[in-house]
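Backbone-to-sequence.
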């Protein structure tokens, strides 16, 4: 009875930490494709191929439900996977819809027509591939009228975080926030549209200013997953053991993951 959590690297650990706290009795198998990270600068075809390979690995581990804790994979690959690749007895869910539902004041699965919402100007910080997909804008349009979304591709931030260079990551965050504010000087809210970015949440908030509400995904995804499993308990797969898998160097990835979550994390080779 395991649920799979997939990310291109270590950013999905922010989601894993939240879902483990929300669902302590559910085993989770985490797979980070660190050998091929970052995904945000890859083509949609590459992202699709890499994502399906990793999700199949989690299916093989006994996970009938997999969460793509990677906005790039969710934006560039998930729809195509759902239309033509995922077996009928499996489910793969993305991470950005729960956040957009929260921003547009909707409950899970509310498919009523788009309506006016309180937030009008939204800053989106994401990887280049997520920005180019326009997936966030598409999901907003399904749910809300008159929301202006200004996107900023944050090149280099994921690489700096994966390398543990948080001084560089903070400098890059401030540069990207400055670039966005030249396009949208006074956003109402900001979306951290990459699961790595919560590790830099304080830098984003400081650069944006205290009056901008900054949204990240981990807790919202945890609540959405808890609701989903309450309604679909059969989707907790046959696996019974939690595990941390990586396509990268397990020793290096374990050290970085331990630094991220501030508790001992031991990865094994996928």
């Amino acid at each position: 009875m395991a649920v799979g959590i997939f990310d291109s690297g270590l950013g999905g650990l922010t989601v894993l930490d939240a879902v483990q706290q929300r669902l302590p009795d559910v085993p989770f198998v985490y797979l980070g494709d660190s050998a091929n990270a970052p995904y945000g600068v890859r083509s949609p075809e590459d992202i699709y191929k890499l994502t399906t390979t990793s999700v199949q690995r989690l299916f093989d581990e006994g996970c009938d439900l997999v969460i793509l804790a990677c906005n790039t994979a969710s934006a560039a690959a998930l729809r195509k996977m759902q239309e033509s690749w995922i077996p009928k007895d499996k489910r793969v869910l993305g991470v950005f819809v729960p956040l957009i539902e929260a921003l547009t004041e909707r409950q899970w699965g509310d498919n009523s027509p788009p309506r006016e919402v309180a937030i009008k100007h939204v800053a989106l910080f994401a990887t280049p591939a997520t920005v180019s997909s326009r997936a966030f804008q598409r999901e907003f349009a399904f749910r809300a009228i008159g929301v202006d979304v200004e996107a900023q591709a944050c090149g280099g931030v994921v690489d700096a975080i994966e390398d543990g260079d948080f001084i560089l990551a903070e400098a890059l965050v401030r540069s990207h926030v400055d670039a966005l504010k030249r396009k949208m000087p006074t956003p109402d809210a900001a979306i951290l549209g990459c699961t790595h970015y919560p590790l830099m949440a304080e830098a984003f908030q400081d650069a944006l200013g205290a009056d901008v509400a900054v949204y990240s995904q981990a807790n919202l995804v945890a609540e959405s997953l808890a609701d989903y499993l309450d309604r679909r308990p059969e989707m907790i797969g046959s696996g019974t053991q939690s595990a941390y898998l990586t396509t990268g160097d397990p020793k290096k990835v374990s050290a970085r993951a331990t630094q991220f979550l501030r508790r001992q994390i031991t990865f094994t080779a996928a």
